[in-house]
Amino acid sequence: MTTKTVLCVAAGDLSTFENLDDTIQGWELCKASSLADASKLLRARHISVGLFLMDFEDVPAADAFLRRHPAVHWIALCHPLRLQHEPYRQLVRDHCCDFHTWPLDRSRLQHTLGHAHGLAALRAQPYPRLPQRSDSPLVGHSEAMRRLHSQIARVAPVNAAVLIWGESGTGKELVAQSIHARSAAAAGPFVAVNCAAISPTLAQSELFGYVRGAFTGASQDRRGLLESADGGTIFLDEIGDLPLEMQANLLRFLQEKSVMRVGGTRSVPVDARVIAASHVALEAAVARGEFRQDLYYRLNVLSLDVPALRQRKDDLVLLAEHFFEQFAAERAPRLKGYSSAAQAAMRRHDWPGNVRELINRIRRALIMAEGRLIQPADLGLEGAPAQDGCEPLDGARVRAERQAIEGGLGHGKSVTQVAEELGVSRMTLYRLMAKHGIANPSRARGK
Question: Is residue 269 located within the same domain as residue 192?
Answer without folding.
Answer: yes
